[in-house]
Write a structure and sequence with these properties.
single chain; mainly beta; OB fold (Dihydrolipoamide Acetyltransferase, E2P); Ribosomal protein L2, domain 3
Length: 279
């Protein structure tokens, strides 16, 4: 795992920094776990653009990831670590004793040939890749793929390099420090996977050129101040004119750039002990 840089024979290569994919041990995906992935191009069922600056991109197949880890007390062996074009982290192909295969998110310490297991009641080893309830995990342990409701499947800390930390437990509630530094209450019956998600060097990558971003299905984001008044509230004016509005707004007049859109009476407020960014 590392970052690969290039000889600066062109300007894009001068700034390009990509993953060297040295941690991959398997390069062909498991066909039984692939599904077609249709692209919308940011358009709804009427063909109208509802999300701007999307389109194009390389064709992809979706890898079915086992976020639930619901095969309890059945050990599985890691066949290989693979690349997944649909997420920032790597995925691990595991095989159970009955030859059933599944994909899971690959933790940082997980290697080919390791054994992983998921449980609900039994005491198992605190090892990267093992999945167990929050009540069984020691305090201070780094975890990922955390459930928000028991049996729902992991939803928290699933991107490259992310992990959460178990801070405390009180009765049926565990206090989890999120990757955003938010502290949140989660039931101890919810399960999580031990370890930090792999591919921690993802944030150090630099695409180097606009074309590589287009390969990911993202188009260039056009600023409002360079548009005409008919196209954006910030548009118009002679030369390089500032936005003119008292506050920056979106194309449809909604305040933006730091404007809080979270509802004040949101149902999940009672689960948040400390918000991100607070001292």
């Amino acid at each position: 795992m590392g970052i690969k840089r290039f000889k600066p024979t062109t300007n894009p290569l001068r700034h390009t920094a990509l993953s060297d994919f040295s941690e991959l041990t398997k390069h062909t995906p498991e066909k039984s776990l692939l599904r077609p992935l249709k692209k919308s191009g940011g358009r709804n069922n009427l063909g109208r653009i509802t999300t701007r600056y999307r389109g194009g991109g390389h064709k992809r197949m979706y890898r079915l990831i086992d976020f639930k880890r619901d095969r309890l007390d059945q050990s599985a062996i890691v066949i290989g670590i693979e690349y997944d074009p649909n997420r920032t982290c790597r995925i691990a192909l595991i095989q159970y004793e009955d030859k059933t295969k599944a994909y899971i998110l690959a933790p940082l310490e997980l290697k080919q040939g390791d054994k992983v297991i998921s449980t609900m009641d039994n005491d198992i080893e605190i090892k990267a890749g093992n999945c167990m309830p929050l009540s069984k995990i020691p305090l201070g342990t780094a975890v990922h793929n955390i459930e928000m409701k028991p049996g729902m499947g992991g939803q928290i800390a699933r991107s490259a390099g992310s992990s959460a930390q178990i801070m405390a437990r009180e009765g049926e509630i565990a206090f989890i420090r999120m990757p955003s530094s938010e502290i949140r209450k989660i039931k101890v019956a919810c399960r999580a996977t031990i370890g930090q998600v792999g591919n921690v060097d993802h944030e150090s990558q630099s695409f180097g050129k606009a074309g590589r971003i287009r390969w990911h299905g993202k188009k260039g984001h056009v600023r409002g101040v360079v548009m005409n008044p008919v196209d954006h509230p910030h548009g118009g004016g002679e030369g390089k004119t500032p936005q003119g509005n008292p506050h920056p707004v979106s194309k449809w007049g909604m305040p933006t750039k730091g404007f809080k859109t979270r509802r004040k009476q949101k149902y999940s407020n009672r689960f948040i002990v400390r918000r991100r960014g607070s001292k």
